[in-house]
Amino acid sequence: MIADKGELAPGLYLVAVPIGNARDITLRALDVLRGADVLAAEDTRSLRRLMEIHGIALGDRPCLPYHDHNGDRMRPKLLEALAAGRSVAYASEAGTPMISDPGFDLARSARDEGHIVTTAPGVSAAVTALTLGGLPTDRFFFAGFLPNSGGPRRRALEDLRDMPATLVFYESPKRLGAMLADAADRLGHDRPATVCRELTKRFEEARNGSLAELAAHYDAHPPKGEIVVLVGKGNLEKISESDVDRSLTEALETMSVRDAADAVSGMLGVKRRPVYQRAMALAKARDSDG
């Protein structure tokens, strides 16, 4: 894709950029940014600053914004440049394009129109967190950002409860405490987890603990910065019906059916709906005997 004279062949180049430390960029990514005819970025200010740090002049080349709010309007312009035989480089605000990133439709459209699409790979926050998090990496599932509101977020977490892999989430610092509390409730209070914050930056942190412990910590100490949450596979030991019944019977002595189902499903790390149905049956049988 790079000609003998250092010029880029026509096509779309997806350029991975640092997530924090500006030196975490590949030589090939710098070559692409230096040689592309047209530059596009989720955040043009961040890209311009990165290029300045590495001594790459923009010159008279266009540097166009491309994000969730203008993609439908900007995409035809970038496709026109590709059709005219120009090289176009696209960079996320941070990390690798296509990973929780608006560039997907651009890459798909370019491919559909027969243009070459390639990448200058590099850092990703998800993989960096897995490297530092201390949780199993033989299998992992990237879930991106969960829904903002509580109900949909809890339902999304419950759908992931039985996933036999380390779970990877991106999260806002403002929602981290609530997200961890919901995760503890739906995935299991004792399930191991790691919160990675400010990766590759000065105040980098990877805090390990159970979901309940981390929820309590970040509720009391609201964090700052970019955050990746890892959740371990949890206890894969099969929970028997007798275990559930015994725990529910004890819980129903002091709790309502709803609260008992919440407590037992969280404690045992099993889905709430069948536990709730079983709690209703046990409560009904108890009331009939009484």
From TrEMBL:
Top EC class for this record: transferase
Catalyses which reaction(s): cytidine(1402) in 16S rRNA + S-adenosyl-L-methionine = 2'-O-methylcytidine(1402) in 16S rRNA + S-adenosyl-L-homocysteine + H(+)
RsmI HTH domain span: 241-282
Gene3D superfamilies in UniProt: Cobalt-precorrin-4 Transmethylase, Domain 1 (3.40.1010.10), Methyltransferase, Cobalt-precorrin-4 Transmethylase, Domain 2 (3.30.950.10)
GO terms for MF: rRNA (cytosine-2'-O-)-methyltransferase activity
Domain Tetrapyrrole methylase: 12-215
Keyword Transmembrane helix: no
Localization, UniProt: Cytoplasm
Assigned EC number: 2.1.1.198
Main location: cytoplasm
Keyword terms, alphabetized: Cytoplasm, Methyltransferase, rRNA processing, S-adenosyl-L-methionine, Transferase
Source taxon at top rank: Bacteria
Entry-linked InterPro entries: 4pyrrol_Mease (IPR000878), 4pyrrol_Methylase_sf (IPR035996), 4pyrrole_Mease_sub1 (IPR014777), 4pyrrole_Mease_sub2 (IPR014776), rRNA_ssu_MeTfrase_I (IPR008189), RsmI_HTH (IPR053910)
A Pfam entry, by short name: RsmI_C
Keyword Endoplasmic reticulum: no
GO cellular component, one term: cytoplasm
Assigned protein family: Belongs to the methyltransferase superfamily. RsmI family.
Function summary: Catalyzes the 2'-O-methylation of the ribose of cytidine 1402 (C1402) in 16S rRNA.
Protein name as catalogued: Ribosomal RNA small subunit methyltransferase I
Species the sequence originates in: Salipiger aestuarii
The encoding gene: rsmI
